[in-house]
Specification:
This protein has 5 helices and 41 strands. It has 573 residues and is mainly beta. The chain has 4 domains: 33-154, Cupredoxins -  blue copper proteins (Immunoglobulin-like); 159-337, Cupredoxins -  blue copper proteins (Immunoglobulin-like), CATH 2.60.40; 346-480, Cupredoxins -  blue copper proteins (Immunoglobulin-like), CATH 2.60.40; 497-571, Immunoglobulin-like (Sandwich), CATH 2.60.40.1220. A hairpin with a 7-residue loop joins strand 3 and strand 4.
């Protein structure tokens, strides 16, 4: 039964959350241009008076700047890891090559700089960046090493939409957190009863009385939000994860799972002086969703500490909008059309894949994880799929576990073709990279693996509940090049370099196909640690022995003619 809002605030929140939001919403700084310097910092922040909380930040003490990118620009990033831990940074939703993707194989050791560069190929929308270190993603992201990305393009620029950042176009990074008695962030804990937006607890935002754009990102570790406005005020969704919808969709509710983004327009015209709460109506969530009254499909399936969390199954404010006078030249109307999305025809599919989600353990503890994809857990040394370049594929996701999983795939955007046998609702009909699959449900999507190929360049697919991902609910694929295309990992014109066999069980032969000598070789493991160095080789062929090293992916750096060629080798035992 839905709980009355006022009673809920008094009974459920008590001293945890004030009925009236009191802290001005922080708006992240911005970076724009074609060169971006990002410093990952081990720092601290005061969330609660009298307490200093240890945090991670990017160029600041919690979260990071919003990056503004223009479609078609070639950009360069300098990611300086000043943490004490090895980490990674993944450009969530961006279509980039595997070597620039920032997955768990592309590690950044402490006090080192990763320098990815790529051309922006994505449609105008809201993306984000966050760590992706295997087993450590939840810790690093929960501590705050994340931020938004906003891509602009000519189609979006031609529309009459709010786009003045921090004036009528606002980023909202939504997170639930758990803190211990000393106000330190706790991960792997169902007591995530403190809600923050842009790192602000009990946030309010002076909002002009006009059409306003909100870019919502669910950056929570696990919590799924059922978002609406107080009083069932209508709003219009204009974009999904990877781009604009064909037309605005009027809603009073929508679900946003971890990793998902949505852009909405709210018309506050004529409401000066009012306060409107942005809400999560969790009392309306069905069973089997983290955030509902029952996280599993039945009362026996629960998570330790879950029933004590006042947010679960309750309606609660995420933040408050304090409506103020309009800005100069405000946007006062909702557009009728936005863009044209053209999904690939189902009949054009070259291949079909089926992914089945199941718990590792059966019985009442099944909901607590870990969870399999196709009866296996993630292995850094295993390539789950090899996909030909330009393949159009339909993936079928079937959830046979008792809890919902937000599924995310790297490299591509997709179009949902079916949810539980039906076409997706209009607000989910755009480009997506995360889709929620409920217990007992099957979801299908179609996508194309285009632009990039690299037979050793790994892309991930995984559950975006970060605890599930860290425990192994993840797989990886490579996009293979046609025989007449060189892998992107090899510098153009230098494909006369051969490393074989790949994969190998022990030794790797390195050979040049012409009279060019190899001067030196360095080999790095997946953590970025150099494990082998061979200098003064001066031969066209040499052998590197890996048999004393564990199964995994290794990066070879080969120096010839004052150039460095790089190649990944898979060691399998």
């Amino acid at each position: 039964m839905k709980k009355p809002f006022l009673t809920l605030c008094v009974i459920v929140f008590g001293s945890l959350v004030n009925v009236n939001a009191q802290n001005l919403l922080a708006i992240p700084d911005t970076l724009s241009g074609t060169t971006f310097n990002l410093n990952l910092l081990d720092t601290n922040k005061v969330f609660f008076t009298g307490f200093t909380t240890n945090t991670f930040g990017v160029n600041t003490n919690y979260l990071g700047p919003t990056l503004f990118l223009n479609k078609g620009d070639s950009i360069h990033l300098n990611v300086h890891n000043q943490l004490m831990d090895t980490t990674t940074i993944h450009w969530h939703g961006l279509h980039v090559s595997a070597k620039n993707d920032g997955g768990p194989h592309i590690v950044i050791p402490p006090d080192s700089i990763w320098k990815p560069s790529f051309r922006v190929r994505d449609h105008a929308s809201t993306y984000w960046y966050h760590p992706h270190m295997h087993h450590m993603t939840n810790l690093h992201a929960a501590l705050g090493a994340a931020g938004m990305i906003i891509v602009r393009d000519t189609i979006e620029a031609a529309l009459t939409l709010p786009r003045k950042y921090g004036v009528d176009d606002f980023p909202l990074v939504l997170q639930s957190k758990s803190f211990d008695a000393n106000k330190q962030i706790v991960v792997h804990d169902a007591a995530d009863s403190i809600f923050m937006v842009n790192g602000t607890i009990d946030a309010y935002l002076p909002t002009p009385a006009q059409v306003v754009r909100f870019r919502l990102l669910n950056a929570s570790s696990e919590r799924i939000l059922y978002i609406g406005l107080q009083g069932n005020l209508p709003f219009y969704q204009i974009a999904t994860d990877g781009g604009l919808l064909n037309a605005p969709v009027q809603l009073t509710r929508f679900m946003l799972s971890p990793g998902e983004r949505a852009e909405i327009l709210v018309d506050f015209s004529g409401m000066t002086g009012q306060n409107i709460n942005l809400m999560s109506f969790a009392s309306e969530l069905p069973n089997g969703i983290y955030g509902a009254l029952q996280p599993g499909m039945g009362p026996g399936q629960t998570i330790p500490g879950y029933t004590l969390n006042p947010l679960n199954g309750a309606d609660y404010p995420l933040m408050s909008f304090s409506i103020v006078t309009p800005t100069a030249n405000p946007v006062t109307s909702i557009p009728t059309t936005l863009t044209t999305n053209t999904p690939w025809p189902i009949a054009s599919a070259d291949d079909f894949k089926t992914l089945i989600f199941t718990p590792v353990n059966q019985g009442p503890t099944a909901i607590q994880g870990p969870f399999y994809i196709n009866n296996t857990l993630f292995d850094m040394g295993t390539i789950n799929y090899r996909i030909p370049l330009d393949n159009i594929e339909i993936w079928t996701l079937t959830n046979q576990s008792p809890i919902a999983h937000p599924f995310h795939i790297h490299d591509v955007q997709f179009y949902i073709t079916e949810i539980a046998g039906a076409a997706p609702p209009p607000h989910l009909a755009g480009r997506k990279d995360v889709v929620l699959v409920r217990p007992g449900q099957t979801v299908k999507f179609i996508t194309k693996f285009e632009t990039f190929c690299d037979p050793m360049g790994m892309y991930m697919y995984h559950c975006h509940m970060l605890t599930h991902e860290d425990e192994g609910m993840m797989g990886q694929f490579v996009v293979e090049c046609p025989t007449n295309v060189s892998a992107e990992e090899i510098i153009a014109g230098d494909n006369e370099l051969i490393l074989f066999p790949n994969p190998t069980v022990d030794k790797v032969t390195i050979k040049m196909n012409r009279d060019v000598v190899i001067s030196s070789i360095a080999v790095y493991d997946f953590l970025g640690k150099r494990i082998i160095i061979k200098n003064n080789i001066n031969q066209i062929e040499t052998i590197v022995d890996l048999q004393q090293h564990p199964t995994g992916i290794y990066l070879f750096e080969i120096n010839i003619n004052d150039k460095v060629l790089r190649k990944k080798i898979s060691l399998i035992k």
